[in-house]
Amino acid sequence: MIKYAFYKCEFGYLKVGYTDTAVTFLKRIENVDDKDVHSDVSDWAFAQIREYLCGKRKNFDFPYELHGTEFQKKAWHALCDIP
């Protein structure tokens, strides 16, 4: 089951979708649009994103799961090959 956590940022809110073990998506939104339930996984992801936005991080190591069509997954994997 996917849950959602919302974090206030300079650009509005960051919506973090997650399961008990991994982040499933990140989305910038204007207003909280669901039940706000934080977890260790969502807090971990948000902390790393804040570090990235502050210029202190280049890579992420929080757990995530890609959800999409087979075509989308192939496209995402191909993007990882671009330097």
- Percentage of β-strand residues: 25-35%
Structural class of the secondary structure composition? alpha+beta
Taking the alpha carbons of the first and last residues, their distance comes to 34 Å
Strand order of the largest sheet: 1-2-3
What is the overall silhouette? Answer: globular
CATH-defined fold name: Double Stranded RNA Binding Domain
Looking at this structure, what is the CATH superfamily? Methylated DNA-protein cysteine methyltransferase domain
The count of helical stretches stands at: 2
Q: Which second-level CATH architecture applies?
A: 2-Layer Sandwich
Q: Round the mean pLDDT to the nearest integer and report it.
A: 94
Q: Please give the number of β-strands.
A: 3
User: Taking Cα atoms only, what radius of gyration do you get, to the nearest Å?
Assistant: 13 Å
What is the H-and-E element order? EEEHH
Question: For the report, how would you describe the main beta sheet?
Answer: 3 strands, antiparallel
Q: Classify the helix fraction into a percent range.
A: 25-40%
Written description of the protein model:
With 83 residues, this protein is an alpha+beta fold. The chain has a single domain, classed as Methylated DNA-protein cysteine methyltransferase domain (Double Stranded RNA Binding Domain), CATH 3.30.160. It is built from two helices and three strands. A three-stranded antiparallel sheet has the order 1-2-3, with helices on one face. The longest helix is centred in the middle third of the chain and has 14 residues, at 40-53. The radius of gyration is 13 Å and the shape is globular.
